[in-house]
Amino acid sequence: MAVHDAMDVLSGKWKISIISVLCYHNKRRFSDILNDIKGISNKMLSKELKELEINKLITRTVFDTQPVTVYYELTEYGLKLQSVIKHLSAWGTEHRKKIMGR
Amino acid sequence: MAVHDAMDVLSGKWKISIISVLCYHNKRRFSDILNDIKGISNKMLSKELKELEINKLITRTVFDTQPVTVYYELTEYGLKLQSVIKHLSAWGTEHRKKIMGR
DNA sequence: CGGCATCCTTCTGGATACTG
DNA sequence: CAGTATCCAGAAGGATGCCG
Q1: Most exposed among A39, A46, B45, B72, judged by the fewest C-beta atoms under 10 Å?
Q2: What is the pLDDT of residue A96?
Q3: Is the CB of A31 under 7 A from strand D?
Q4: How many domains, in total, are found in chain A?
Q5: pTM of the model
Q6: What is the DSSP letter of B49?
Q7: DSSP states along B73-100
């Protein structure tokens, strides 16, 4: 099932949120993403970024400054998830209204 | 974050697959879904169906036959996920090609 | 048929401390 | 800054058996 193939890659508590952040910012640093996503720990961010990189959804670029600077960005491939995220986000907004009662 | 609101409801190993099945079949019985989704156990199917019902994404209808017949179907609300599923599915198909190398 | 109960193992993920 | 290492609790989820 194709949907399951997609979810294999996207499963994990934070992956969708991470991709979402990268959709809006294009290039983003580790600590910035850490602040963007409320509640995530550095351990989890590190782990999920690594998995996304393995699956070719994002790239990791290191700049040899002092201290080092690392940028993450979506690959061309990962960018194709933008429309999915957009729809999901719209649905999520509506869902929150429904659950919260306003 | 709206995306996270959506994922709260959709998290779980099989929920997206279940919704996907109901997108294609409209009305579907417990044991049919069990067969549709490869690898799922009855315990998991039961649990995730219950959660989806609580969140108003699906409805559960019991027919008092002998033995009982139970149908699940998407609510009007759950149906709004169809476009998300469609995009996700398309992406998943492409992803499989990419990973499998063809 | 459509589940629920139980057992048990694995995975998830938070807190904290440490490093180049 | 951008992680890694360790510890540990709790959740997820598979296997099996039982029930109306």
Answers
A1: A39
A2: 82
A3: yes
A4: 1
A5: 0.92
A6: H
A7: EE-HHHHTTHHHHHHHHHHHHHHHHHHH
